[in-house]
């Protein structure tokens, strides 16, 4: 299940500074400090086996586990493992086990003093290797109440995909929560929420040899705070459950039981998911309490909650048209898009959507007419021009011939936007014998734009192409001169 609130666009006025700094901190920690930790850990585990440390610690660990209650699974797994797998198993099982570390230092798990004496120097070298691993030094370990680790672990991530997913939710929620309560309160919610999530995970896994990391607990706190800060106000959000997905509006408070129920359900049903559902639930509850407290004490910026264009809030025709297209309800989509095109004639995305409706409906002639209509609009921003280039690619892939005047107009427009590669693409579909004077002039301008941009190879390529396609034109003579000089 995915529920992502998307209630506000990101603008200069709503830019969440602390959210951006937190995102930057997470990225720097992962790529600047954690990167390479996996290789260091593997090297340490190899050294654990090869140094003879495993030979001493495996029987010591087995004796120690026998004296501990609640470790039956660990003991069964150790005894069932082949001899060559017992060392790696113990090494990984004890990575995050502070109780076992303390027991080793006393020497009680060892059979005799000789083994303990032989173990000390080997373990010292192994511990030095582990201390060199940034993640290992800062991860939150179960059965150990360490506020430093509990907070630091909220800035650690297992891999780039883990980092990306968390940062996506951080940006979406940060935009809504930081603007509503201000940067400093937002930071307090994030930090306390991360600690609350770590505490919940610690309580759930107490007595186990495991560890947790990731910003998801702190981000879950932002989710809980968001629900109670925005309260009964209707907000826009995207949801995806199995094969169902949509973009709808509902009271923010409704999301809290949905989010919390999902985490609790997974916590109780997925033992081996390797996801800290208990931390998510703990963060949600912590954030909800903080959000309720801030709202109840009047520390919420009501102006931010209300600061929305009423017309924009009511006008969801574009979103509804997209939903109709996704469901192949083409007539309904066409009706909405026709109205939007009449009211907002410069919107390239609306015109392209009308083309796709006609194409999906099997109306080839109408689709071509609408495609040319979309390409004829004088795009006023990069996004619209990029959409036109994509449509041009789509039509060229279908070998659909477009009027020469339209391609020349597109090329001129892209050149004005300092986009020579798009202009070149528009010209490539022109036969060499059509509108020769205008076409050769455009090719020459594309070549000069490439030169000005420092794209030397593209500059020469266009000069050669111009000289080959239109050898009798004045621009071709200029091209040959420039090629000789090059």
Automatic annotation (TrEMBL):
<feature type="transmembrane region" description="Helical">
    <location>
        <begin position="184"/>
        <end position="204"/>
    </location>
</feature>
<feature type="transmembrane region" description="Helical">
    <location>
        <begin position="160"/>
        <end position="177"/>
    </location>
</feature>
<dbReference type="InterPro" id="IPR022764">
    <property type="entry name" value="Peptidase_S54_rhomboid_dom"/>
</dbReference>
<dbReference type="Pfam" id="PF01694">
    <property type="entry name" value="Rhomboid"/>
</dbReference>
<feature type="transmembrane region" description="Helical">
    <location>
        <begin position="12"/>
        <end position="33"/>
    </location>
</feature>
<protein>
    <recommendedName>
        <fullName>Peptidase S54 rhomboid domain-containing protein</fullName>
    </recommendedName>
</protein>
<feature type="domain" description="Peptidase S54 rhomboid">
    <location>
        <begin position="148"/>
        <end position="295"/>
    </location>
</feature>
<dbReference type="InterPro" id="IPR035952">
    <property type="entry name" value="Rhomboid-like_sf"/>
</dbReference>
<keyword id="KW-0378">Hydrolase</keyword>
<keyword id="KW-0472">Membrane</keyword>
<comment type="similarity">
    <text>Belongs to the peptidase S54 family.</text>
</comment>
<keyword id="KW-0812">Transmembrane</keyword>
<feature type="transmembrane region" description="Helical">
    <location>
        <begin position="237"/>
        <end position="259"/>
    </location>
</feature>
<keyword id="KW-1133">Transmembrane helix</keyword>
<feature type="transmembrane region" description="Helical">
    <location>
        <begin position="210"/>
        <end position="230"/>
    </location>
</feature>
<dbReference type="InterPro" id="IPR050925">
    <property type="entry name" value="Rhomboid_protease_S54"/>
</dbReference>
<feature type="transmembrane region" description="Helical">
    <location>
        <begin position="279"/>
        <end position="296"/>
    </location>
</feature>
């Amino acid at each position: 299940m995915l529920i992502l609130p998307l209630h506000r666009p990101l603008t200069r006025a709503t830019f969440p500074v602390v959210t951006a700094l937190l995102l930057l901190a997470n990225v720097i920690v992962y790529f600047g400090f954690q990167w390479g930790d996996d290789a260091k850990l593997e090297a340490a585990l190899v050294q654990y086996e090869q140094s003879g440390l495993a030979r001493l610690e495996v029987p010591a660990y087995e004796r120690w586990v026998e004296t501990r209650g609640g470790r039956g699974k660990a003991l069964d797994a150790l005894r069932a493992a082949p001899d060559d797998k017992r060392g790696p198993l113990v090494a990984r099982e004890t990575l995050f086990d502070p109780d076992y570390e303390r027991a080793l230092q006393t020497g009680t798990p060892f059979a005799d003093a000789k083994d303990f004496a032989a173990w000390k120097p080997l373990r010292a070298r192994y511990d030095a290797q582990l201390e060199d691993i940034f993640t290992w030094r800062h991860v939150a370990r179960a059965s150990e109440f360490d506020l430093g680790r509990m907070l630091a672990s909220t800035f650690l991530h297992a891999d780039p995909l883990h980092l990306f997913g968390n940062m996506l939710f951080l940006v979406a929620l940060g935009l809504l929560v930081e603007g509503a309560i201000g940067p400093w309160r937002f930071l307090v919610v994030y930090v306390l929420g991360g600690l609350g999530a770590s505490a919940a995970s610690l309580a759930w896994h107490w007595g186990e040899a495991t560890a947790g990391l990731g910003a998801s607990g702190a981000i879950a706190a932002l989710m809980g705070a968001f629900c109670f800060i925005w309260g009964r106000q209707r907000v826009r959000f995207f949801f995806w459950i199995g094969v169902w997905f949509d973009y709808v509006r509902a009271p923010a408070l409704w999301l809290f039981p949905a989010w919390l129920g999902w985490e609790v359900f997974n916590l109780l049903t997925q033992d081996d998911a390797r996801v800290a559902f208990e931390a998510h639930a703990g963060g949600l509850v912590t954030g909800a309490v903080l959000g309720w407290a801030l709202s109840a004490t009047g520390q919420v910026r009501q102006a931010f909650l209300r600061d929305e264009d009423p017309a924009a809030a009511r006008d969801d025709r574009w979103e509804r048209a997209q939903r109709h297209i996704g469901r192949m309800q083409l007539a309904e989509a066409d009706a909405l898009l026709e109205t939007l095109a009449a009211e907002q004639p410069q919107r390239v995305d609306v015109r392209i959507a009308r083309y796709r409706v006609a194409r999906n409906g099997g109306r080839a002639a109408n689709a071509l007419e609408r495609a040319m209509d979309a390409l004829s609009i004088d795009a006023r921003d990069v996004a619209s021009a990029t959409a036109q280039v994509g449509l041009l690619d789509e039509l060229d892939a279908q070998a659909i011939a477009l009027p020469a005047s339209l391609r020349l107009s597109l090329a001129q427009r892209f050149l004005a936007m300092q986009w020579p590669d798009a202009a070149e693409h528009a010209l490539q579909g022109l036969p060499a014998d059509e509108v020769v004077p205008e076409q050769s002039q455009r090719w020459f301008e594309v070549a000069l734009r490439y030169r000005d941009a420092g794209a030397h190879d593209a500059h020469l390529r266009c000069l050669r192409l111009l000289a080959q396609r239109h050898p009798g034109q004045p621009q071709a003579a200029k091209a040959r001169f420039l090629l000789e000089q090059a």
